[in-house]
Structure formats: C-alpha cells, structure tokens
Q: What sequence folds into this?
C-alpha cells in the first residue's frame, strides 16, 4: 500500500506548504470577521459575540486531542519498526552462531548463501522509494534461495544431527525480515490524516475569526499556524518508513551484518578455529 500523496513530500517541503495553507485559512477567518463587522455597521447593529471564545477554545482543545491521538498512532508504528530491526539483527546473529556448529562442507555452503542474503538485506535497509522496491525484490529472491539451499544441505541421509535446529533459526530469521517488510506498510489510516487536516483548516478559520475587531495579528497568528503545521508535518513524516526525515536506525542490522562478514572471513582464512574438545582421561588399570 502506497502512502497518501501528502506523505510522499519531504518534511522540508511539507511543513511550509501546510503553514501556507493554514495561514490562508486564518486569513479567510479574518476576512469573514471583517465582512460581518461591515454588514453590522451598515445595518446599525452590534455583532453578538457572546460565547464565541468558548467555541474557539473547544475547537482548539479538540484539535490538540486529535493531533495527540494521531501522533500516538504514528509513534506506535515507528516503535514497532525500530523493535523489528533489533529482532531481525538478533535472529541473524543466532542463526550464524548455529551455523558454526555445522560440519563441513554444509557450514561453508550455508554461510556463503547467508552472506549473499545479508548483502541484499543491507541494501534494502539503506534504500528508499523506487530503489527500495528493487532491493526488496532482490532480497526476496535471495531469501527463497537461502531457504532452498538450507533444505538441500540439511536433508537426506547425510544430514547433520542438529539440522532441524538450523532450519528453525533460518525460518525465524526469514520471518523477522517478512515482518519488517509488512511493518513498512503499516501507516496511520488515511481517513484519520484527512480528518486531522480538515480539522486544522477549520480551527485556523476560527482563530482568524476570533478577533472581535477583525484585526490581523500577523506575528502571533503566523507563529501559531507555523507551530500547528510543524506538529502535523512531524506526524506525517514519522508515519513514513524510508522516505521521511525521521527514520528508523538501521544500525543494529548493519552492525550484525558486518560482524558476520568479518568473522566468516577470519574463519575461512584460518585465523579462527573451533576449540577441540578435551579428551577424557583414560581409566586407571584395575588392581
């Protein structure tokens, strides 16, 4: 599911556009107030504004509630993506440690397939937009190849004793990657975003209409609209996965990939070898 068009804009472009939209709505409110004042003056009557400040305060309170509610939804999805990065990194490390217990040549074969898969996962985590779509397809292909290679290497008569455990860690690692891909598409419902934007425009009109003399308080109103636009922009940017300014830290995944590659290179170079099991002492002869 692609994000709403407004979420595809950068934060640096989205915030000014929203600020201009809200300031225009505020100006509409100012002009409506001036129109009512002119009409009342022409009729020789006074405008009745009793209770309007209460309505305006209620609208701003509901606006704050809606922004807080939407921010909570976006933050919850952001935290889910961040947690899944750590879980995938831990699953990769656990799977590689399990591979170290495999005999040769299965260990080297599966380690090579794992490194190819990790290269595509690392590329996927560092791309965005259309490039990420291509990287996701490449990662899916290598994931399927890794699974088939694991089945081929760990099945049959010559399967190692703990082949089932290795297949289990492989499945867990691939499932974590799939959960991350699905989490990228989990966004705040579009109708909630639309309601927030419409409500913000209505609130800006009410703020502009609120001055009893129809004055345009340029500095305070501009600051208020800019802050409101910034709050909404942060929510929309937080709701995006790879295109926004606020992004999930891919550090755990990148670090575990580098550690696996470094350790595997040292293993193949002979710098690291598994410790040999100590031999049991021979029993003393019976007397």
A:
């Amino acid at each position: 599911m692609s994000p709403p068009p407004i979420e595809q804009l950068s934060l640096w472009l989205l915030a000014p556009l929203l600020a201009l939209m809200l300031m225009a709505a505020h100006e509409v409110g100012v002009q409506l107030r001036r129109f009512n004042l002119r009409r009342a003056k022409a009729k020789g009557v006074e405008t009745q504004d009793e209770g309007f400040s209460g309505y305006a305060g209620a609208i701003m309170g509901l606006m704050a509630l809606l922004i807080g509610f939407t921010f909570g939804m976006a933050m919850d999805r952001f935290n889910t993506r961040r947690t899944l990065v750590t879980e995938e990194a831990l699953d990769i490390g656990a799977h590689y440690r399990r591979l170290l217990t495999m005999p040769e040549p299965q260990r080297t074969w599966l380690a090579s397939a794992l490194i190819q898969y990790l290269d595509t996962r690392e590329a996927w985590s560092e791309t965005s937009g259309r490039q990420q779509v291509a990287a996701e397809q490449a990662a899916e292909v290598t994931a399927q190849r890794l699974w088939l290679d694991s089945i081929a290497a760990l099945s049959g008569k010559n399967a190692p004793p703990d082949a089932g455990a290795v297949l289990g860690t492989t499945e867990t690692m691939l499932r974590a990657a799939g959960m991350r891909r699905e989490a990228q598409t989990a966004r705040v419902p579009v109708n909630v975003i639309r309601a927030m934007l419409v409500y913000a425009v209505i609130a800006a009109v009410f703020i502009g209409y609120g001055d009893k003399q129809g004055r345009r308080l340029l500095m305070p109103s501009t600051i208020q609209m800019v802050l409101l636009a910034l709050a909404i922009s942060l929510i929309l940017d937080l709701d995006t996965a790879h295109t926004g300014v606020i992004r999930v830290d891919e550090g755990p995944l990148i670090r575990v990939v580098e550690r696996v590659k470094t350790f595997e290179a040292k293993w193949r170079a002979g710098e690291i070898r598994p410790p040999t099991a100590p031999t049991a002492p021979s029993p003393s002869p019976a007397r």
